[in-house]
Amino acid sequence: MMFVVGVTGGIGSGKTTVTNLFQQHGIVIVDADVIARHIMDKGGEALTAVEARYGKEALLDDGSLNRAWLRERIFKHPEDKHWLNDLTHPLIREQILSQLHQAQSPYVILSAPLLIENRLTKLCDRVLVIDVSEATQLQRTQQRDDVSEDQVQSIINAQASREQRLQAADNIIRNEGDESELTPQVEKLHELYLRLALAKQSTH
After folding, report:
1. How many domains does the chain have?
2. What backbone torsions phi and psi does residue 160 show, to the nearest 5 degrees?
3. Most buried residue among 8, 35, 105, 135 by CB atoms closer than 10 A?
4. Is 88 labelled as part of a ligand binding site?
5. Residue 98 marked ligand-binding
């Protein structure tokens, strides 16, 4: 099996910036967020199930998912959130496994904001946490998504705590500065993961 590095971090921590730097080294990135978005593509079984449950109200005029409506709905109705998770999680996991299996690089990165919460760490040989303070999370996410502090705070509260993430980490990248401070950290870890991946291959 391929050597898998799980990358996680809270909202606004800069996961995408970090995984893009790994990608520049030719590393395949399997992104759980991207997979989760595509799970709801038109014609797929997930969207069909959503429409069967909620009717046309859950769709936009073009027949695609009305994400804002659904987000609002699960925010107000916890039982809907459970139903949606039961529907999407197995489909997402199946896609993740398939993409990890197909990856053609010395090691592969699984990027997932809920890596720890959804126990995806079991698929990983190493866990890399992108760590920032809560104040930075709030500031960055508000600037990026133009949302209220309350909304960002509720997302932070729903994710694993900073302590839980750091406990699960094999490696940590601190991302309080700008991208120039990330590059050397990524290069160092890239070298480490290449060595570990090689060592894993030679024992199999």
Report:
1. 1
2. -55, 150
3. 8
4. no
5. no
